Amino acid sequence: MDLRLTEDVIAELLAERDRIVTDYGSINQTRDLVSWTSLFPGGAGLWQGNEKLGEPLPKFFPDRPYMFVAHNYDGSKSYDRMLKRGWERRDTAFWETFWAYLAYVSIQPTNVFMTNVFMGLRTGAAVGKM
């Protein structure tokens, strides 16, 4: 088993996103990663604890992570608020359902990589036509 450094894997994923996604059309590109547990590409997509300030990224990327794919990261307004405050809200239906699902299927959050189909942010709010 060859463990890869998390920072190297995230850098590779961001570079590949930038290579593949050349036109964001009506959506905006994420800039910085939101610290704390948060889906890629707005966050690193890995478990960083469940406290507001979270834990640092794990040193090593999970060897064989379960990958969960969501629809889109968020809207640009919410993303900017998250960057400013430094953490993502957890009192949402998404996170409550996601944690309950992981518990139900006995998957540890440390063995999960969370990403989105769309590699950008909707302009304004997170809901509506893409």
Topology:
Layout: H1 6-20, E1 27-29, E2 66-72, H2 76-85, H3 93-104, E3 112-118, E4 120-122
Tell me about this structure.
The chain is 28% helix and 15% strand. The protein has helices at residues 6-20, 76-85, 93-104; strands at residues 27-29, 66-72, 112-118, 120-122. The chain has a two-stranded antiparallel ribbon. It has a two-stranded parallel ribbon with strand order 2-3.
Key structural traits:
alpha+beta; two-stranded antiparallel ribbon; two-stranded parallel sheet; 3 helices; 28% helix; globular
Note the overall shape. Answer: globular
Distance between the termini: 40 Å
Structural class: alpha+beta
Strand order of the largest sheet: 1-4
Gyration radius, in Å: 14 Å
Q: What oligomerization state is this entry in?
A: single chain
Average of per-residue pLDDT values: 83
User: Please, how many helices?
Assistant: 3
Describe the structure concisely for a colleague.
The chain has three helices and four strands; from the N terminus they run αββααββ.
